[in-house]
């Protein structure tokens, strides 16, 4: 388990580390690993040493065993250098046993190998330390003349040490996977909120703009043409019902955008705003995978023309991989020069930001520039 570089919730003190949930998961297995040391303790108390030596050696062994339990939870939260230093200090601690139990002290090096495997993040370094411990054990056994009887201890040290190192990496990989899954879930929530925000802007912005324009028109027509005013009010009712349905669909996340439907809606909205519409009959020439995107762009672009441009004409041109919306109004307004709600603020604000996000998902780009007719040109294009 290698947490120092990725886990910001580092326990503040020694006892907090020893009481960490990860530490409690370590203790049972580590305690089971200490059981085979019963033979070392049995050999110690069966030896010819004095009672004082036996008691002192038992205390030192207890310290070595306690260090084996405590070191990994303490070192997991430190940097690599301090971890290596901790392993080295633990090895030195085992050497203190040599005057009391002799060559049997080598049996405790398997715990040094386990600690190295569990705390050192770089596999090559951990493996090097483990192999070094095994080689040192073999040298000691050769010098002491017990190689034929004790060589297997080195094999146990190396095999268990490398096994613990691999186990630690598996635990670390699982922890990183859980962290990644948590981050993916968080990003999914963020993306869903962004989608909802874009849909609310695109759905309600257009509908409310057209409703506002038609309401103003109906109010002016009531004294002079009540029948026409009634038609406009009926359109307003239809638009509000449609907007409510779109809102429900957007909340559910299943709203479908149709380019042909948006062309018809653009025609009606521009007419209500007394803007001459120059629109294609349909969008059949548009690539199928771009029609939904172009529908959103058309809705946002026409909404901005109605709301901000002060134009008399609006031209919409579509191609297999592009869509252009142009007006002959006052042109793009710099954000710093525009009042709140003006064209520049809107076109470079949440509306265009939302369209850019949608376009990017389809491999397209959105741009807002001054048009050749003196107004604003909104272009969405996918590179072929």
Automatic annotation (TrEMBL):
It comes from the Bacteria. Pfam families: HisKA_3 (PF07730). One of its GO terms (molecular function) is phosphorelay sensor kinase activity. The keyword Repeat does not apply. One of its GO terms (cellular component) is membrane. The keyword Cytoplasm does not apply. The chain crosses the membrane at residues 26-46, 53-75, 87-111, 123-145, 151-168. Keywords: Kinase, Membrane, Transferase, Transmembrane, Transmembrane helix, Two-component regulatory system. Residues 192-258 form the Signal transduction histidine kinase subgroup 3 dimerisation and phosphoacceptor domain. PANTHER family: NITRATE/NITRITE SENSOR PROTEIN NARX-RELATED, SENSOR HISTIDINE KINASE DESK. This is Histidine kinase. It comes from Leifsonia sp. NPDC080035.
